[in-house]
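Progress report, Aim 2. The chain analyzed during this reporting quarter is listed below.
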Amino acid sequence: MARVVVLDYGSGNLRSAERALQRVGAHVEVTSDQKAAREADLLVVPGVGAYAACMEGLNSVRGARIIGERLAGGRPVLGICVGMQILFERGIEHGVLTEGCGEWPGTVERLEAPIVPHMGWNTVRTPEGSKLFAGLDKDTRFYFVHSYGVRRWELEPAEHLKPPLVTWADHSGDEFVAAVENGPLWATQFHPEKSGDAGAHLLQNWLTNFS
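Predicted structure tokens for the chain:
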């Protein structure tokens, strides 16, 4: 049974994530303990609310450093919602720029759509070869609730490195990054823990791929 830590840094649907992971057979611990987060088989970084507040909470438990150390050792990390957004270089909310973890270049910014927030069920456009969405129909819907997102993928291709697999979604004509698969670092803008059977299937794919 995979040992999964859900990182508690004061932001996120911790119990929802815990229950969803237990549902697919993981042994789950919700904790802010840095040693446990470093040593777990898999780490989940959830996040809800404002980008700046999430980064403040993450920094309070040295979360960015933990994520970096895990990735350097090839140890899996899954970011969810704002937990995905903070993996990028920066976020801009209400004119305030906040530095993120910098695992990927790019800016989290307000969606440019007639109705914001983007709230409810939506399909996604997955790339060929995705392991995160393996076995899911292209019309599968996932649950989103957010006003901000990454609207441009800025990581330049590297000659000798396999490029990340980027999944996109559309809200009223505005495209944004819905998920990323990049070596041991995977992330979703939507909430798999609130996406019913589809979310459970996706979490099972994550566990299976890294267990």
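The chain has one domain: 3-209. The first strand starts at residue 3 and ends at 7. These observations will guide the mutagenesis work planned for the next reporting period.
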